Amino acid sequence: MRKLELWGGHECTVNRVGGAYHDQTIRSGHQHRISDLELFADLGLKALRYPVLWERIAPERPDSFDWRWTDERLTRIRDLGMRPVAGLLHHGSGPRYTSLVDQDFPLAFSRYARAVAERYGWVEEWTPVNEPLTTARFSALYGHWYPHLSDEHVFWAALLNEIDGTRLAMREIRQVNAGAQLIQTEDLGRTYSTRAVAHQAEFDNIRRWMTWDLLCGKVTREHPLWARLSDFGFADRLRAIADDPCPPDVIGVNHYLTSERFLDHRTDAYPPERVGGNEFMAFADVEAIRVCLPAPAGVEGVLQEAWDRYQIPLAITESHNGCTREEQVRWVREAWETAERLRGRGAEVVAVTAWALLGTYDWNSLLTRHVGHYETGAFDVRTGTPRPTAIAAELKRLGTGQGEAHPGTLGPGWWKRDIRMEFRPVFRTVETPEPRAEVRTPASPTRPLLIAGATGTLGKALARACEWRGIDYRLTSRAELPLNDEAAMSRLLDELEPWAVINAAGWVRVDDAETEVEGCMQANAAGAVALARLCRDRDLPMVGFSSDLVFDGAKGEAYVESDAAAPLNVYGRSKAVAESEILALAGKPLMIRTAAFFSPYDPYNFAAHVARSLAADTEVVAADDQVVSPTYVPDLVDATLDLLFDGETGVRHLANAGAVSWAEFGRQIATALGLNPALVRGVPGATLGLPAARPGHTPLGTERGQLLPPLQNAIARYAAVMAEAEFAGEAEAMADGGTPEDRQVGSGARVS
Q1: Does residue 727 carry a pLDDT above 80?
Q2: What angle do CA 406, 407, 412 make, to 5 degrees?
Q3: Stretch 317-335: mean pLDDT, rounded?
Q4: Cβ partners under 8 Å of residue 442, min gap 6
Q5: pLDDT given at position 372
């Protein structure tokens, strides 16, 4: 058995919604960046799933081709030592002159395949149609994509068209290149259910194999779906396919954490948007990993099933997880280790494919809307220049066999922890047997992430995020990690041997700093610099936090990372000094500028002050001439941890996208909470009598990529958490343990 290979691919779907085509290659920017291919090759990829898509090459007429883009890129892929796996239709319905349900679709598609093969006769591996069953379901059964139909007869017609198109396409390709291989992909999961919905689960679990069953000639009279398709009038087509099959050379399994489903007839236990049904009954349809006990066997289970069923070489042809960075790394590593384990048991798994190398856009809406929702991949493309993430580092480690796994990613993924349960747990029964799989518990990491700042808003929020994300950490108080005692800090670093340090400690009382200059400068500048120096000496990444108050507000527009600091007050000066001196140390420092914290888990911020005051019909006075970019703390800490895993350094602005005055921010909070925004009275900031001077206009923009969602989105999520009944008691409990320095709630105050 040949060595396990690492493959890759960028999300290249071209799907049609109504009259509009959505092209992921354009949206990711790869359309105009051939240099991406060098980044891909550097990961150690042996093959690259790559688009030669019908809609892109021959969009207007079946006999008019534009090969220029593909010519350049396929040649470059070969020159870089990778093999292209040519994809001809990726979740598409074809150009405007055809459709999945057009009776002439198979023949027209095969003619296009012949043209591609003649152009690129040296290409050995082909995926004519990506995920035929899934594409037919979304286009002709659920109506999400063109031709937007919801009819089972039409669904089967669309699938058979794709299968016939694949068979005829491979016939044409092999007439040009007799050694051409078919790598047939399909999403593969398993459906579980309560006993009352067992009929639907059984049907789903048979139907999931239809792409490969048809190509392998297995859909004969003995097949459990033969009668159903014959009743729709497809018996002759089934016989023709079975008599002239086109079995894959490699079965490509695309598997996601959402691929395995659980159906429950007890619909009252689930949100209304999760409830659907069939012609017989209503039922909820949710991710099995979120409800089933024990957990489904996941990718290992479905791969084992596929091997047992077909005895054809397998590849994991898509492995992607839209989650936090360490979870994304854990997922791709699990896919690789699972493949190696199955190979050890005799299953011929030939490759693992890192999918969505450049991330994905709007898959949360199944590509039905163009709203800009982005999930990061091995590279983050939001600035237009791909930035490697921690996934890229892990892929390179797997692809080259060199280096160590990131210590912060060694714990189990969320799908193997208690937090996976989103709904009332359901114990699986004998009606939903589990395929054979090996249960393994990953070893716990031994090196923690060190977080300084146990009593502050940010330190506690970071610890909460680490708990949720399964990151081993140590949260330290000032007594444990005194920023004014370099020897004590050194001893603790040597004792814990952390893999990185986040300094969330320091002076936060902006106005008190005007009279306590030495204390502020010691905590925010001298102490922070000393800690950074110790980290540099140990080659440890370090994250520090700065503020929008390093700026004087004179720019008149949003500040970006390269703008020069010009603070107006002592607090701002302490942060500016820390930035300058820490970055001058070299090493691996990341300095994050942020502003105007708000969080449902901290009762001592401006938003919480507005909520309490307005709930008691008390007026809130706030500056209407000081414009800031409020930052939702849960968003801030998640982005901070992601950047730390990615190995980012330098200055980074992290604030929710948007700019408001403090008074307007208060009104927006009030509106979201259903309170009276008229009780927020805007006044000139100078009338508030605050000792520290505040700049008038310091929204934070970025030239390195906007990572946090829009402010309105953050406020909506803040309000949703605040609205939960249990929050009142939770906030009260936290208030009892709050410290005086947490209590910065005055108009225009910042906490950082």
Answers
A1: no
A2: 100
A3: 96
A4: 410, 411, 412, 416
A5: 87
Q: What are phi and psi of 687, to 5 degrees?
A: -85, -5
* Domains annotated on the chain, with CATH: 5-260+295-427 (3.20.20.80), 449-742 (3.40.50.720)
For residue 604, what pLDDT is reported?
Answer: 84
Rounded-to-integer distance, Cα 321 and Cα 316, Å: 14
Arithmetic mean of pLDDT, 715-728: 78
pLDDT beyond 60 at 442: no
- The pLDDT score that the predictor gives to residue 743 is 26
Exposed, middle or buried by CB within 10 Å (0-12, 13-18, 19+), for 232? middle
Chain position carrying tokens 């809406």: 365
pTM score, whole prediction = 0.90
Q: How, if at all, do strands 83-90 and 125-130 pair? A: parallel
The two structure tokens encoding residue 452: 């300084």
The answer to whether 327 and 469 are in contact (CB under 8 A) is yes
What integer pLDDT is reported at residue 435 of this predicted model? 53
Quick one: average pLDDT of 543-548? 98
Q: Are 135 and 87 in contact (CB under 8 A)?
A: no
Count Cα atoms within 13 angstroms, Cβ side, for 141.
Answer: 15
At 30, is the pLDDT very low, low, confident or very high (cuts 50, 70, 90)? Answer: very high
List pLDDT tens digits, range 451-472. 999 999 999 999 999 999 999 9
Closest CA to 27 of 377, 402, 274: 377
Give the pLDDT band of residue 434 (cuts 50, 70, 90). low
Contact at 8 Å (CB) between 276 and 340?
Answer: no
* DSSP 3-state percent helix, strand, coil across the chain (nearest 5): 40, 20, 40
The pLDDT, as a whole number, for residue 752 is 25
Coil vs helix vs strand at 565? coil
> Who's near 534: CB < 8 A, 6+ residues apart?
486, 489, 490, 493
Question: Rounded to whole angstroms, how far apart are CA atoms 475 and 317?
Answer: 40
Average pLDDT score over residue span 723-742: 43
CB burial string 239-263: b at 16+ within 10 A, e below:
eebbeeebebbbbbbbbbbebbbbb
Contact assessment for residue 686 and residue 507, using Cβ atoms and an 8 Å cutoff: no
- Residues comprising the chain, all counted: 752
Coil/strand/helix, residue 92: coil
Q: Tell me whether residue 361 is exposed, middle or buried, using C-beta atoms within 10 angstroms of its C-beta: 0 to 12, 13 to 18, 19 or more.
A: buried
Residues 6+ apart with CB under 8 A from 592: 543, 544, 545, 546, 636, 640, 643, 651, 652, 653, 654
What number is the average pLDDT over the span 482-497? 95
Element (H, E) at 682: strand 680-683
Quote the distance between the C-alpha of residue 462 and its chain's center. Answer: 19
Render 626-662 in DSSP notation, one character per residue. -EE--EEHHHHHHHHHHHHHHT--EEEE---B--EEH
